[in-house]
Amino acid sequence: MVKHRRDLPCGSSRMADMGALRDESVVISLGSKLGEPNVITISCSDELGLACDLARSIFEFGLDIVRADLSTDGRWCLILLWVIPWQGLAKSIKWGLLKKRLTSACPAPPSSLILPCNRDPVPKNNVYLLQTCSEDRAGLINDLEQALWDLEIDVHKVNALTSPDGSAVDVFYLCDNEKLPSFGKRQDNVCSQIKSVLGSSQAFCKLSMAADNEFPESVDVEMFPMLPEELFRENAEEFEATSPKRDPTMPRFSINIDNSLSPSHTLLQITFSNRKGIFYDCARALKDLNLRIAYGRLSTTEKGVGDLDLFILQANGNKLVDPDKQRCLLSRLRMDMCDPIRVIIVKKGPDIELLVATTVEKNGRARPRILHDITLALKMLDICIFKADSEKITYGDRLWEIYRFLLVEKSSMSLKSDRIRNHIVERIKCLLMGK
Q1: 362 to each of 71, 315, 394, how far by Cα in Å?
Q2: N or C: lower Cβ tally within 10 Å for the chain?
Q3: 12-108 maps to which CATH number?
Q4: 124-216 has which fold?
Q5: Which stretch of 111-125, 234-248, 314-328, 377-391 has the lowest confidence by average pLDDT?
Q6: Cβ neighbours for 277, distance < 8 A, ≥ 6 positions apart
Q7: What are the ACT domain coordinates in residue numbering (predicted)?
């Protein structure tokens, strides 16, 4: 059942979005008044990594999980999530689309629970190549990324360059979440929306299927010898303890593994300072290490202190007792929850280059909306991008996504100034981390 708020801040569009939120697996109940958490109830088959997939969708839609209860018997799970929009996003939450994404993330019921039937195979997401050319301006890449997200299309890779005549030539590798069988209709719709963003009637837009319907492969870090080692630092404990922006009134990140409280589960107890996507980062680490969540409870305070208790199992159903595996888990959680994104600005000859690095899921799925938030910060600062590209890079045993931006110098804002560069880094981190 869906409860509707009487004075919906999103107007009639939100009413329309919420019209079809009733579903056996996903139910969204809106708070009865502004500021009250919205409750998402999910009841479906369980599988390893389900919490990560659900948390990713909620993170992508600009929502913060302030409380959670998770339980499963190994086959069926019940998940309750209390969510609120991050500041400034309350009017832009697309609840109907979120419900659709969460439902698609739920596994199909076990065959023993449903009548035999001929199920159509789930179509593979189409991979597109989008090429555009238009007059350059500050915020163009951000506007294009937002338009693509509104079309339910994810940006997998970007290459952008400003030509000598001032034109912006942008190439995007895209993943279409719509899974529509007719490419022609999708092509016309996408190009129409993109051209409206490009503005000029002379703008060029072409959408085509990518070769073999596949993304480019990741490359080894040795292909990029000029990348600074600082991007791949692993000592997250030292970073968290010495960070100049750490609020001294907030508790330090702490994590404990306990095998004494349960005869069949390992207990993880984590205390943290809340930020955007932190539960996703935790669940992502567990998924990548093939660890299941049998029961979990998350709580946060209004001041941003979070406590997370998780009873976990290995994929084979056993407790986590091996000391080496425990150390690996502690290191991964500390790194992914304390220091998941690195942002630095370096001099590259006469140019100024912005570098952003983040680890991605083991299956190659990138952190949601990261390109949007980086380019939004630059747009808000009125900084133009001369050249941009992204690449997935293998470093050690982790897969990373690296974004590189050559920034355009401005007479009113000298990028050669350490103070200005530090200000840019902090603005980008603030948008990416919500702190």
Answers
A1: 24, 16, 11
A2: N
A3: 3.30.70.260
A4: Alpha-Beta Plaits (3.30.70)
A5: 111-125
A6: 55, 59, 340, 367, 368, 433, 434
A7: 129-202
